[in-house]
Design goal:
9% strand, Helicase, Ruva Protein, domain 3, Rossmann fold, 9 strands, alpha/beta, 6-stranded mixed sheet, Methane Monooxygenase Hydroxylase, Chain G, domain 1, 3-stranded antiparallel sheet
Length: 492
């Protein structure tokens, strides 16, 4: 409204000056120069998006009920938000309201969704932005945007007759990284200082109670002053979902998708260890796309299995290895699979020689339970599986190839993990203080022991390897159940 009045007044003033006989050419040139300067400043980011955020009304369909796999995080977040909803109890008990909540965790775990659900839960104004929006090469711009952000949150809440406002800053590590790291660019420090000042100014008796929520997967980069109580009072861990959490997330994303009778969501949850909520959403979406390609009216279990492979490894590649290379890949993956069944029966989920991403073939395992602590025996078994591909090549073909280089790298890392955890014959050691020669000697000792064990096992399984390789070359993909049936037939 103010802009329209200003434009109308300016036009009227120009018309009056022309009628009165004034020379408006100097004024015209001055206005033109001012417009050019404004345009240049805008293009350089000096006046771009001074609000620093986008204002949104709470999305009505995003509530805590539609977020699966994060029960602990939701319960902790609800408790924090109750300080805003029930302010009368806060004042009665003399509780200082929380000023900031930091959501930490890997990408794709639902931190932004939790922030939107929080705004809905408190019935407040929701303003979101990214940390990168506040950092410019011009001094003072970032600090000005922070001030405007907090002022706009209060103003919009008053206009909408709200008493609460949530400011959500994604990728806050860009805005709040440790001070002093950018010696040639003090703009970073000024912007962070302004955020600290604004958060200090939040009071319990404010007419609009502002809560700052932020998300990061690099909490170690944040400045200590930002992390202390009185700024970000609570850290809510939004971690990768466990098996039950993955089951809940899959059920949410499968609600609007026609699943066939052979689909068992629990089995899919079991085979997706390490998947985030974003991965699981992509999984169900890719399965639906695969079903559409086949002109199926329903999504079958094979579509979900194929989608798991695609999310992990990527799309199938057009390149086709030569006959000899394909045979070597089949032998290599069969070696992995046999070693996996040796150390943990029933662990093989899929065996394929279909090229995906950067791999010419792969063997996928599934776990009965999600593991977070590992014994030496478990880690040694993992090393055995990693080395088995190369050992199978040497046993059947007579030599090795470069296809095992990534396996060797992972095997070395796992052996180092055994030493660092004090599980090796060296006992409890300081990895940094340990001599390089001792590290290499103990690592090689662990790897050689597992290589010898696998070699002895596969020497007895040459005929089984050939049978499975023949089947794999014929079908390109063998399921875990089919793989185990081939082993049992040979044994019988």
């Amino acid at each position: 409204m103010l802009r329209e009045i200003s434009v109308g007044f300016s036009v009227a003033l120009i018309i009056f000056a022309v009628i009165a006989g004034y020379d408006i050419f100097p004024l015209f040139m001055l206005a033109l120069a001012g417009g050019a300067l404004f345009f240049i400043a805008q293009s350089k980011g000096m006046v771009k998006n001074l609000n620093g955020a986008s204002s949104k009304k709470p999305t009505t369909n995003i509530t805590f009920d539609v977020i699966g796999g994060q029960t602990t995080a939701i319960n902790e977040l609800r408790e924090c938000l109750d300080f805003i909803k029930h302010d009368e109890h806060v004042k009665q008990l003399g509780i200082r309201p929380l000023k900031g909540i930091l959501l930490t965790g890997p990408p794709g775990t639902g931190k932004t969704l939790l922030a939107k659900a929080a705004a809905n839960y408190t019935d407040g104004v929701f303003m979101s932005c990214s940390g990168s929006e506040f950092v410019e090469m011009y001094a003072g711009v970032g600090a000005q945007r922070v001030r405007k952000l907090f002022n706009n949150a209060r103003e919009k809440a008053k206009k909408q007759n709200k008493t609460n406002a949530i400011i959500f800053v994604d990728e806050v590590e860009i805005l709040g990284s440790k001070r002093g790291q950018n010696n040639n660019h003090m703009e970073y420090d000024q912007t962070l200082n302004e955020l600290l000042v604004q958060m200090d100014g939040l009071k319990v008796d404010d007419s609009v109670r502002v809560l700052v929520m932020a998300a990061t997967n690099r909490a170690d980069m944040l400045d200590d002053a930002l992390m202390r109580p009185g700024r970000f009072d609570r850290q809510v861990k939004v971690d990768l979902p466990d098996r039950q959490g993955r089951y809940e997330i899959l059920q949410i994303h499968a609600k609007n998708k026609p699943l066939a009778e052979d689909v068992d969501i629990n089995n899919v949850a079991k085979e997706t260890f390490g998947f985030s909520g974003a991965h699981l959403e992509s999984l169900t979406n890719e399965a639906a796309i695969l079903a559409m390609r086949e002109k199926c009216s329903k999504i079958y279990y094979r579509h979900l299995q194929e989608a798991v492979d695609k999310v992990i490894m990527g799309e199938k590649m057009d390149k086709r290895p030569s006959k000899d290379e394909l045979h070597r890949v089949a032998v290599h993956e069969t070696g992995h699979a046999l070693a996996s069944e040796m150390v943990r029966p029933g662990s093989v989920s899929t065996l394929t020689v279909t090229p995906r991403g950067g791999a010419l073939g792969y063997m996928r395992q599934h776990s009965e339970d999600d593991n977070y602590l590992y014994t030496r025996e478990y880690l040694e078994n993992q090393i055995a599986v990693m080395l088995a591909g190369s050992v199978a090549e040497k046993t059947v073909i007579g030599n090795r190839s470069t296809g095992a280089s990534n396996d060797f790298e992972k095997a070395f890392q796992t052996a180092e993990k055994i030493i660092k955890a004090g599980l090796s014959d060296l006992g409890i050691v300081s990895w940094e203080s340990l001599a390089q020669a001792d590290k290499y000697k103990e690592t090689k000792k662990l790897l050689n022991a597992q290589e010898k064990k696998v070699q002895e096992y596969l020497n007895k399984k040459c005929q089984v390897i050939n049978i499975i390789v023949e089947k794999l070359l014929d079908k390109e993909k063998v399921s875990g159940d089919e793989f185990r049936s081939l082993i049992e037939k040979k044994i019988a």
